[in-house]
Amino acid sequence: MTTSTNGTVTTLPTITLDEFDQPAADMGVQAAEVTEPADVQEQARQAYRDSVAADQPLSGKALGEMFERGERWGRDRIAEAKKGTGNTVTARPATARKPKAPTVKATAVPSVKTEAAAPVAERKPAPRTPDVAAPAPVVTPSGGRLVSWVGFVFGSIMSVAANVLHTWLPAATMPEGWTPGIASQIGAAVWPIGLLLSVEVLSRVAWQSGFWWNLARYGGAGTVALGSAVISYGHLRDLLAAWGYGVLAAHVGPLVLDGLMVISGFALLAMSMRTKGAAA
After folding, report:
1. Where exactly are the transmembrane stretches of this chain (predicted)?
2. What is the domain range of residue 34?
């Protein structure tokens, strides 16, 4: 642009519209720098620290909105709070405002219904039983069972033989060639065999406890023993008398054989009961 003053030509610089879009610094106009108050930034940093302590850290956008700033401003304050710095930055003039309280969505805590604990019954200490020494095991002498069996079998065989021989006594008065019948000989052997089997039943069967069981056990065995003893005693006495034994010997002899069989049988019974008791 050219102007003329008093004949002098002065050339002025030409300014285009594009130059108005350049920063004021390029046009020779320097923008005033205003330092933002430090207390606003510190409030923002403290607000972020409080949100972290509450396990709900604020984002840069949320922090900026609290102080009516932008998201970049909020991120800068968060970075300063993390680094522990508080440098002031150049920004547009602003009036300190009270920060908005962060909105925290309350979450309903489900109520838990607790049942009253059942009363615990007091345990009473169990009565202490006095220390009782265990009974010492009864030791059966070695060979006791064998001797009992030998005595029982010997007494039984002798008693059976004596009762069978009793059936041959009439042969002295009978015609020559006479023999007792088989039935009478078997019948004579029944009584001592019955006594033998009754003792075996007593010693080998696991009987139940109780009055009636004991009555059946010992009452039955007692009846068999008594009946067979009476009959067998008469047969043996007559046999000994026919063989020439005296009156006393004839009456005592049957007791020896039948007594040996009975005592040996009860010895076996006692040992079997002791074995069952130890097993229980």
Report:
1. 146-169, 181-203, 215-236, 242-270
2. 26-101
